[in-house]
Design brief:
Elements (H helix, E strand, L loop, with lengths): L6 E3 L2 E3 L2 E3 L9 H9 L3 E5 L5 E2 L5 E2 L8 H27 L4 E7 L5 H11 L6 E5 L6 H8 L2 E6 L2 H10 L11 E4 L6 E3 L13 H14 L7 E4 L20 E5 L13 H8 L6 E4 L7 E5 L2 H11 L2 E2 L10 E6 L2 E5 L4 H9 L4 E4 L4 E5 L1 H12 L31 H9 L32 H9 L3
Parallel strand pairs: 3-13, 4-7, 7-8, 8-9, 9-10, 10-12, 12-13
Antiparallel strand pairs: 1-2, 5-6, 11-15, 14-15, 16-20, 17-18, 19-20
Length: 463
């Protein structure tokens, strides 16, 4: 394998190996600190990070308010305290080795406030900010003001071009690199545009070349491109290293570091990943963010797929083929195609007796318990996203003005649950499409869980 040369990332010469940030409890101060200690770039997730006391005790998130805007403020304040505490943990572990970054889901409600206040509360401990799931126009201004580097996550040269023209050209000094996240291979939320087919993956090479050409044109020929999504062994990416068409390139790993001794995810989640098979990760569009995302097909995801497959259109009035009157509640009826009557009867026979409307004039079928849970989650909504399709929350004016969508889920509830060891099969389990490789990788044979040191050294050796 070609030797992996160090790059200047966030003001220091480090190995171009970046720990992917992931979402709730996917990475923390411990995992990122040990990754940086190896001379790489560790990444703390700022998506509701766990708060840890100065004595090292975990402080759970507790929401007490009855008004949603007040519950939202509780979540924001907890996240800020959590982010600061995790930054301190990472710094203590890493010492002066490597770099510490934080990762933020840009579409999180009040994400900008959280970034600013975490940077203020952990001054000098954080070297870079990575943002994805949306176009983070204000990221350059925020990072520059706090003199830390910033790393937008994009899935195409076009997205980077838009960000550069609209904002980043004014804040180029602290633009530390660009993360190209492959929309067909990465876990979690994926940046597929309307012009791209989720069923027709494109090779990353040509898309990376286009991104490098753009960076060259705007005078950023030495800016590192960080390749994310589908990275397992660097020996498989030798053609990308020291390649003049790609220039300075680094590699971000999301899925593989999740199974290490320092990873914060629970043992059940690790076991689920260790036993995953090829094809178990599904690229779908159930997320309340509206983005595509990739997760392991467990009972939770299978039920969302079942719900979608059983969906039928309806009309409020009898029109054309929509002329069969269907009661959907004790006080409401709609019209459906008579051909769908059999599907309704079959769903009822299977126990899906609650009928719920969607914003797209369709009906889906739920069990009574699913409907009760949905009502409870909406009543307890903390407004975690800037706009949520599941609850119709909008951080800007309190509501999107649209009907809540029963085809999606409460992302805060399910990720907090799985991130803290609850019911691994009935919550969302994000993972990259290479997760099946754990079962084939000799490093994980006989149930062995490596340390970050072991994994890092294996990566440097191309294994």
């Amino acid at each position: 394998m070609k030797p992996l040369h160090k790059l200047n990332i966030s003001g220091a010469e480090v190995f171009p190996l970046i720990e992917g940030g992931k979402g709730i409890n996917g990475t923390d101060g411990k995992s990122s600190g040990y990754w940086a200690k190896e001379g790489g770039v560790g990444t703390i997730s700022l998506v509701t990070p766990d708060e840890v006391s100065p004595e090292g005790e975990f402080i759970p998130e507790v929401i007490t308010k009855t008004i949603r805007t007040e519950r939202h403020r509780e979540m924001v304040e907890y996240s800020i305290r959590g982010g600061i505490s995790q930054a301190r943990i990472a710094h203590e572990i890493a010492g002066n080795n490597g770099r510490i970054h934080v990762n933020m889901l840009w579409e999180l409600a009040d994400s900008q406030e959280m970034i600013i206040r975490v940077l203020e509360g952990s001054k000098g401990l954080i070297h870079g900010v990575t943002c994805g799931a949306g176009l983070p126009y204000n990221l350059g201004a925020i990072a520059s003001e706090h003199q830390v580097y910033y790393y937008p996550i994009v899935s195409s040269a076009r997205a980077m071009s838009v960000l550069w023209k609209r904002s980043f050209k004014n804040y180029s000094e602290y633009l530390g690199g660009v993360v190209y996240e492959d929309p067909w291979l990465a876990g979690g939320h994926n940046g597929l545009s309307n012009a791209e087919d989720p069923l027709q993956p494109e090779r990353p090479y040509e898309r990376l070349v286009a991104l490098r050409q753009l960076l060259n044109e705007i005078g950023l020929k030495d800016l590192p491109i960080i390749l994310a999504g589908g990275i397992w062994c660097l020996s498989e990416w030798q053609d990308y290293i020291d390649n003049p068409e790609l220039g300075n390139i680094a590699f971000q790993l999301g899925t593989r570091p999740m199974i290490t001794q320092e990873s914060p995810i629970c043992d059940d989640w690790k076991n689920l990943m260790l036993n995953a098979k090829k094809g178990d990760v599904i690229l779908q569009k159930f997320s309340p963010t509206g983005f595509y995302s990739s997760a392991i097909k467990n009972k939770f995801l299978s039920n969302l797929m079942r719900r979608k497959e059983a969906e039928i259109p309806y009309s409020k009035e009898a029109v054309d083929e929509m002329n069969f009157l269907l009661p959907i509640s004790p006080v409401k009826a709609v019209y459906i195609n008579p051909a769908d009557k059999a599907k309704v009867e079959e769903q009822h026979r299977l126990g899906y007796t609650v009928i719920s409307e969607t914003p797209d004039s369709t009906l889906v079928f739920l069990t009574p318990d699913e409907w009760k849970l949905m009502q409870k989650q909406r009543a307890n909504c903390v407004g975690c996203l800037s706009q949520c399709q599941y609850s119709s929350w909008s951080g800007e004016n309190g509501t999107t003005g649209k009907m809540p969508d029963p085809r999606t889920y409460c992302i805060h509830d399910t990720l907090m649950a799985i991130g803290h060891g609850q019911d691994i099969d009935n919550n969302l389990a994000f993972a990259g499409h290479n997760v099946y490789r754990f079962a084939e990788d000799p490093m994980y044979a006989n149930g062995h869980v490596p340390t970050i040191h072991e994994l890092f050294q294996a990566l440097l050796a191309g294994k």
